[in-house]
Amino acid sequence: MDIFIKANQSTILKQDVHDKKHNSILWIDLFRPTTEEISQIAQIYNIEIPTQEEREEIEESARYWEDSQSITINTYFLIPLRDEKRFDNQSITFILHEDILFTVRYSDLRVFDDVQRIMLANPQMFNDGFDLFSKILEIRVERDADMLEGFARSTRALRKKIFDKEMDDEVLHQLSRLQEFNMTVRDSLFDKRRSVAAMLKSIRPSSEIKKNLVIILKDINSLIEFANTSMNALDNVQGLLTNQINIEQNKIIKLFTVVTVAMMPPTLIGTIYGMNFKVMPELDWEFGYPLAIFLMILSTLFPILYFKKKGWLH
User: Fold this and answer.
1) 95 close to 72: Cβ distance less than 8 angstroms
2) How many Cβ atoms sit within 10 Å of the Cβ of residue 122?
3) pLDDT tens column, 213-264
4) Out of 1-15, 89-103, 111-125, 175-189, which region has the weakest mean confidence (pLDDT)?
5) pTM exceeds cut of 0.70
């Protein structure tokens, strides 16, 4: 648990022990809090901290609610999984109570470290918890934008790989990962947009905070539109991949068709001369065997040359 206290206009102090006497607290960051820490903070400030189950609920009433004393927001933040190639959404809880920002999180997120550094270096930028909440969202949306730009570059690279016919199992895995990432980041952006739009209707934030939130909301809407465009591009890539696979399969089928048709006449000739009838004039003919071989070769070459002329062997 990290606690940030505004000592004066030019200094913000960080401590990890709660001081009940201090009345200039800006931010209490509950990082992987214990049950005792949550109970302590909830009792001291008379606030209700959502449980794990409540934080993961997707109903709108569970993502944002406000009463006369506080605003509680559960919103998705993207976190990398172990392989760092996939991402998942984790609900981060923000509680704004008496101008103090309370955050509850169970993952180490760079955005919180960045905001803490900015706050300690430029304390005059932060007067209350709303300033902190606005800055955290601003940086998180910027990170989402950077990730979507990287996503777009990966999509273009994948499209080029398909055009260059460099298809293997990794292409399918990469396409699946990109589709999964796009859906995950869109869920995160939709959730943030809902929270920001709800806060803009509140009378608690100042007009300056609302101006910042309007800008953040516009950025989120732009990113959602960009994510939708990227998803359409991924659908196009998937269509190209499907067409390429169909073309390769058709080539294989055509090749097997040519081989099958080419082998039918020599098979027929071999079958005829393999019959055990006593009256077969060619059996006693000196040139019967060479003639049969010649006919089998000729009957094989003819359909191959025919299909090559028709362009089936290209």
Assistant:
1) yes
2) 11
3) 999 999 999 988 888 888 777 777 777 677 777 777 777 787 787 788 888 8
4) 1-15
5) yes
The H-or-E segment that residue 290 falls in is: helix 288-310
Note every long-range contact of 54-60, with CB atoms under 8 Å and residues 24 or more positions apart, other chains counting.
Answer: 55/91, 55/93, 55/104, 56/91, 60/194
How many other C-beta atoms can be found within 10 angstroms of the C-beta atom of residue 225? 11
Is the Cβ–Cβ distance between 52 and 35 less than 8 Å?
Answer: no
Whether the Cβ atoms of residue 20 and residue 33 lie closer than 8 Å to each other: no
Q: How far is Cα 189 from Cα 187, in angstroms, rounded to an integer?
A: 6
**Token reading at 186:** 């869109």
At position 175, the amino acid (one-letter code) is: L
Strands 2-8 and 25-31: antiparallel
**Within the chain, which residue ranges are assigned CATH 3.30.460.20?**
2-246
Query: pLDDT tens digits for 175-218?
Result: 778 888 888 888 888 888 888 888 888 888 888 888 999 999 99
**Amino acid found at 54:** E
For domain 247-310, give the fold: Methane Monooxygenase Hydroxylase; Chain G, domain 1 (1.20.58)
Burial label, 216 (beta-carbon count in 10 A; 0-12, 13-18, 19+): buried
CA atoms within 13 A on the CB side of 263: 6
- Assigned CATH topology for domain 2-246: Beta Polymerase; domain 2 (3.30.460)
Quick one: which of 163, 29, 50 has its CA closest to 102?
29
Which residues make beta-bridge pairs with 4?
A: 14, 27
Q: Give the DSSP per-residue string, 18-49.
A: --TT---EEEEEEES--HHHHHHHHHHHT--P
Tokens read off for 16: 């990890």
CATH 1.20.58.340 in the chain is located at 247-310
For residues 140 and 118, give the distance between their C-alpha atoms in angstroms, rounded to a whole number. Answer: 14
More confident residue, 44 or 214: 214
